[in-house]
Design goal:
Helix content: 10-25%
Largest sheet: 5 strands, antiparallel
Number of strands: 9
CATH architecture: Sandwich
Structural class: mainly beta
Order of helices and strands: HEEEEEEEEE
Number of helices: 1
Length: 154
């Protein structure tokens, strides 16, 4: 009798474990570093969430950057540089109001979406992102890492 009960408990535990493995992975915040750790930037970045993580070649990836400022941002730009190991592989400039609602003030989120080519090499990458105001003043400068997975989408 105890043997049957033990088997049932073991099967129930295995079923619960299998269900947990099938759940989608939770979005985890990515560590962010300021370019100049001693500078008091007007825009404070509290975190970055990347979906999916790791990024999949050929599929859209969303980078949500949570930030705060007490100075309204009416316009400006994001300057984004991407490094693969020691090599700069991509650079672009975006209108800040295309990535968030302007004027941005208080808590706000910059949401940047990018689809990487299916031939993008897997591995670890680093993004360097400057937030510049309308007079090209540096409002913030951050860097964070992300990974590109091994399998391209079909």
């Amino acid at each position: 009798m105890a043997s049957k009960q033990s088997r049932r408990r073991l099967l129930a535990l295995a079923a619960v474990a299998a269900c947990l493995l099938l759940l989608p992975a939770a979005s985890v915040a990515t560590d962010v570093s300021y370019c100049d750790k001693h500078k008091d930037y007007p825009v404070k970045v509290s975190g970055v969430k990347i979906d999916p993580d790791p990024v999949e070649p050929g599929k859209a990836a969303t980078f949500n950057i949570s930030a705060y400022t007490d100075k309204p941002i009416e316009n400006g730009k994001l300057v984004i540089d991407v490094k693969y190991f020691f090599f700069y592989v991509h650079s672009e400039t975006r209108d800040i109001c295309g990535e968030t609602t302007c004027p941005a003030t208080g808590d706000f989120v910059l949401s940047h979406q990018q689809t990487l080519p299916g031939i993008t090499p897997p591995g670890s990458y680093t993004i360097y992102m400057k937030i510049l105001g309308d007079s090209n003043e540096e409002l913030s400068c951050i860097s964070f890492g992300f990974s590109i997975g091994w399998v391209a989408s079909s």
